[in-house]
Amino acid sequence: MNDIAFFINQWRHSLAEKIASFSEGLSLNLKQQFEVSMNPDEVFLHMLCRKIDIAKKIYQSYDDMFLKPTSDVLLQSTGWECVLFLFATHLSNLQFNTDSFKILGYKWINTLLKAQSLMPSDLQQNVFVQKLYTELLPQWLL
């Protein structure tokens, strides 16, 4: 699992550079979660699940409670990458084959699989996203 921690750390540094140069188009909620991304808030992840699983879209900005969109513009690639990163980080923090993994882990994995069809197509070419879907998810599903 040290390989996963190394990968998450590399991804975090790469994404931090993008977020720093990306002043618009990323909600304050996502920026705040990224800042504490080594331990993302479970409640926030549940809200993201709801946006992906039920609403099937995420907007660029929301109210303080992350309930109502304050923009009609959908989240772009950097924002989606941040969303995927937050789920991957939380998954990597869960102890494999524990009750918490069985409850939350499989929910996060299901949401990540649904997100694949919702995120911008250019994100499919991102090396970190590719590794998440081709190497990490299959590992977590075993």
Verbal overview:
The protein has 142 residues and is mainly alpha-helical. It has one domain (2-141). Helix content is 63%, strand content 0%. It contains 6 helices and no strands. It has helices at residues 2-20, 28-35, 42-55, 77-93, 99-115, 127-141. The longest helix is centred in the N-terminal third of the chain and has 19 residues, at 2-20. The two termini are 14 Å apart. The mean pLDDT is 86.
Detail the topology: elements first, then pairings.
Elements: H1 2-20, H2 28-35, H3 42-55, H4 77-93, H5 99-115, H6 127-141
Helix pairs in contact: 1-4, 2-4, 3-5, 4-5, 5-6
| Helix/strand order, N-terminal first | HHHHHH
Distance between the termini: 14 Å
Largest sheet: none
Low-confidence stretches: none
Q: Outline, from the CA principal axes?
A: globular
Instruction: Compute the number of helices.
Output: 6
Q: Pairing-aware structural class of the strands and helices?
A: mainly alpha
Estimated radius of gyration: 14 Å
| Helix fraction by DSSP (H/I, runs of at least 4) | 55-70%
Mean pLDDT: 86
Give the strand content. Answer: under 5%
Tally of domains: 1
Total E-strand runs: 0
